[in-house]
Amino acid sequence: MQTDHITVIHNMDKHRFEINIDPYTAELNYRLYNDGIIFTHTGVPSPLEGRGLGSLLVKTGLRHAKENNLKVQSLCWFVDKYMQRHPDE
Q: Is residue 2 part of a domain?
């Protein structure tokens, strides 16, 4: 699935990046600390798996961290795996 036309929303109240495809929500949760961000969980409902949504969420979260000069930490295996595969992002 192409992710070019999918909108990622930064839901600051819920501390997450999300993609809403009715009736489902894929999400990348985070916590902020001093000068950094900790990505805690990536969740993609099973009907939406395999479409690249998790990767799009992580890419967006990492871009947000970079644009805001936030140090990145991860407690999520999916984020860790993404960062290993894409060390320049």
A: no
Per-residue burial over 5-38, b = 16 or more CB atoms within 10 Å of its CB, e = otherwise: ebebeeeeeeebbbbeeeeebbbbbbeeeeeebb
Structural domains in the chain (count): 1
pLDDT tens profile 5-58: 899 999 999 999 999 999 999 999 999 999 999 999 999 999 999 999 999 999
Place of tokens 């900790």: 38
HSE, side-chain direction, 13 A CA sphere, residue 44: 15
Query: What is the Cα–Cα distance from 30 to 3, expressed in whole angstroms?
Result: 22
Residues 6+ apart with CB under 8 A from 24: 45, 47, 48
Question: Considering the domain boundaries, does residue 22 fall inside one?
Answer: yes
Please, which residues bridge with residue 73 across strands?
Answer: 38
Residue 52 DSSP code: S
